[in-house]
């Protein structure tokens, strides 16, 4: 609140994404409303985070995202939300989780003195084990 209208982008994006998750867990919104809510938060995240790297000459969004380690499929999801058919709610939820994890690793861990990075290593080992199991399940990516 001390920043007023100059809230750091990562804080603003995190707040919007968490707001989506809270609304989702409340059960008060319909699927379509949740897709729109998640969609707006995801579009704003990609646009705001990559905008800082944009130069006078237009650089493709995929290249900018690659430079800051945002998964390309999140950029593709943003493209669909902006220009195409609205995706399934499950994909929006997954996008939100991936982006929140990116924000945690890229922004929040530095703000909290890297305490989250130490915890993150244990989580990453656990996640790698889960991903290995998920590869065996042909429906995991769907």
TrEMBL record:
One of its GO terms (cellular component) is Las1 complex. GO terms for biological process: maturation of 5.8S rRNA; maturation of LSU-rRNA. Residues 118-142 are annotated as: Disordered. Pfam families: Las1 (PF04031). GO terms for molecular function: endonuclease activity. PANTHER family: RIBOSOMAL BIOGENESIS PROTEIN LAS1L (PTHR15002). This is Ribosomal biogenesis protein LAS1L. It comes from Gavia stellata.
């Amino acid at each position: 609140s001390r920043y007023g209208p100059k809230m750091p982008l990562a804080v603003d994006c995190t707040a919007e994404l968490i707001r989506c998750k809270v609304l989702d867990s409340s059960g008060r919104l319909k699927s379509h409303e949740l897709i729109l809510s998640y969609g707006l938060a995801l579009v704003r995240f990609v646009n705001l985070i990559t905008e800082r790297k944009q130069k006078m000459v237009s650089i493709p969004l995929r290249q900018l995202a690659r430079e800051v380690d945002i998964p390309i499929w999140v950029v593709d999801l943003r493209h669909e939300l902006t220009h195409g058919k609205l995706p399934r709610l499950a994909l929006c939820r997954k996008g939100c989780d991936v982006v929140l994890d990116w924000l945690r690793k890229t922004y929040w861990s530095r703000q909290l003195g890297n305490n989250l990075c130490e915890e993150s290593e244990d989580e990453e080992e656990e996640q790698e084990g889960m991903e290995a199991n998920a590869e065996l399940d042909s429906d995991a990516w769907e």
